[in-house]
Amino acid sequence: MLVTLDPRDERPLYLQIVEQVRRALVVGSLRAEDPLPSVRELAAELVVNPRTVLQAYRALEEEGVVYVRRGQGTFVAPAVGGDDAGRRALARGVAERALLDARRNGLGAAELVAMIRELAAGEDDDGGRDAR
Amino acid sequence: MEGAMHADLGDGACAVATHGLTKRYGDATALADVALRVPTGAVYLLVGANGAGKSTAFRALLNLERPDAGRAEVLGLDVSARGPEARAQVGYVPDRHDAGPRALTCGELLRYAAAYRPTWDAAYADRLARALALDPAKRVGALSKGNARRLQLLLALAHRPPVLLLDEPTDGLDPLVRRAVLALLAEHLADGPTTVLIATHHVAEVESLADHVGVLRGGRLVAQLDRDALHRTVRRYRVRLADGREAQRTMRGEARDVAAVLAAEGAEVREAAPLRLEDGALALLQEEVPA
């Protein structure tokens, strides 16, 4: 499945769809010139209002991530892949959620970053490896 | 802050509207001065406890119930004067589960409906019947509650009406079929412009389809707003109280106004988190939100 929505996520649904498409590009399940599901298909699959899917596709189009071929649907732009801009945008989303969660728990950004470093260092010791 | 809760949607662009709609049953007030505004193309979710007046409002919109005061309009048609014309434009799933004459088979009832509906889409009706696993040979009177609901949904959708009034559309369906029905509804919306008014207890399952919410409490429409306004004006605030302790409050209003109200109480806003549509609607329903 290309896109899954998290019912606990409080962000607007279209942003979640945008992020999931970015994620698919970064992990490589979606590549340059691949077709995106039609608005109708994705709306039915996610049980969301088709306008929400349209809004997400328009936002991605404005960013140059996808383009519309008239009468054929929406496709990933030729130059787009798991490039740095995509990775950065995705990392930003993950970081925003983590920061929000930390603040909710009464923690500051510095404490969160310190703990992430500590955990990542621990993973390296255990033979865990960085995703990149 | 009543004004903020009733976003000004104007009258002209509404596919469904009521004006001062009031209905009493003896001493009980089912609807009190209700002014529904369902913009054309909206998926409007009407929430309320049992007996809040949702089904009465639906029947009044079809002129199946005469209001004591006020009026109802569908596509600009006053339904008390032009009920048949208005009903022809509406696909209706009623709260009750009687789908039609009990002696007919489902297939016979569908052929009958097709003959009376100029816009009946036979290919779509066949597709829906397969998707909903409806047996055309089964008698309407012998249908289970869930199967009667499937038949009612097919009858409401297959003539592709500009307006859908769905009163607890997934009532009586098992979880898998519920999801299938909602996916069919999403497809239906993608296929053509449709205005949908849904009354349901199961806000979570339709919240991703809805773009407008109305809240009925004791026959009164206590809130009516679009999704963005709900997101913006009903929030959960984490505050630091004067004594240094933290507390959570669900408040409605623009963030700046809420912060001012809280500041007057000596509380400082630490975070204002938007609520999911379901939580926002339930908060309005429970009257727990100070304005």
Task: Report on this structure.
The complex is a heterodimer of chains A (132) and B (291). In chain A, 56% of the residues lie in helices and 6% in strands. Chain A is mainly alpha-helical. Chain A folds into 2 domains: 13-76, Arc Repressor Mutant, subunit A (Orthogonal Bundle), CATH 1.10.10.10; 84-125. A two-stranded antiparallel ribbon of chain A has the order 1-2. In chain A, strand 1 (66-69) and strand 2 (73-76) form a beta hairpin. Chain A is globular and about 50 Å long. Chain B is of the alpha/beta class and 291 residues long. Chain B has 2 domains: 14-224, P-loop containing nucleotide triphosphate hydrolases (Rossmann fold), CATH 3.40.50.300; 229-285. Chain B is 34% helix and 29% strand. Chain B contains 11 helices and 14 strands. In chain B, the strands form 3 sheets. Chain B has a 6-stranded mixed β-sheet with strand order 7-8-9-4-10-11, sandwiched between helices. In chain B, strands 1, 2, 3, 5 and 6 form a 5-stranded antiparallel β-sheet that branches. Chain B has a 3-stranded antiparallel β-sheet with strand order 13-12-14. Chain B is elongated, with a radius of gyration of 21 Å. The relative contact order of chain B is 0.16. Residues 7-11 of chain B have low confidence and may be disordered. The A-B interface holds A 5, 7-8, 10, 12-13, 39-40, 43-52, 100, 103-104, 106 and B 43, 179, 182-184, 186-187, 189-191, 204-205, 208-211, 231, 238, 246, 270-271, 273-276.
